[in-house]
Amino acid sequence: MEVHEKASFTNTELHKAMNLHIGNLRLLSGPLEQVRAALPSPTLTEDDKQVLQNLKRILAKVQEMRDQRMSLEQQLREMIQKDDITTSLVTTDRSEMKQKVLRYFPPERGQPVVQGPITLVLTSLKVAPTHVERMITLQYRDQSLKRTVVHLQFTSWPEL
């Protein structure tokens, strides 16, 4: 008997809830245009409008950055597929390769080399059997801030 009373109570509660929401359920089962018309339209303050415009601008910038990233990734993939390092290594003379490398950093300690707005100065040079280690100081234009970079040039590969 107790189970029957609980079931009746639950059924009565369900009936009350359905009657309470029957209007909303009918609206939701109707056409989409009716549902849209029944929704309240928000009232936006000037601050809200400005925030929304900023969000739209940020979202547009994010999409632009995504597109740019995809384009750059595609370009990189194409460049990697087109690159044939074997041909360059086989057809380029070793002394010619050294000349190509030397022009990108200072050949002697203390002698500044200017590459566009950046001045490079070789501060340290250590030669090992398999590589050359250079400490190069970089300075942008006439700013006092300097950065030091370690440049490793492998002159040979160890036998495996």
Automatic annotation (TrEMBL):
Residue ranges constituting the Tyrosine-protein phosphatase domain according to the UniProt record: 31-160
InterPro entries for the chain: ALIX_V_dom, Prot-tyrosine_phosphatase-like, PTP_cat
UniProtKB keywords: Coiled coil, Receptor
Keyword Zinc found: no
Coiled coil: 55-82
Gene Ontology MF annotations: protein tyrosine phosphatase activity
Any Gene Ontology CC annotation: endosome
PANTHER family assigned to the protein according to its UniProt record, in alphabetical order: PCD6 INTERACTING PROTEIN-RELATED, TYROSINE-PROTEIN PHOSPHATASE NON-RECEPTOR TYPE 23
Protein name as it appears in the record: Tyrosine-protein phosphatase non-receptor type 23
Annotated source species: Limosa lapponica baueri
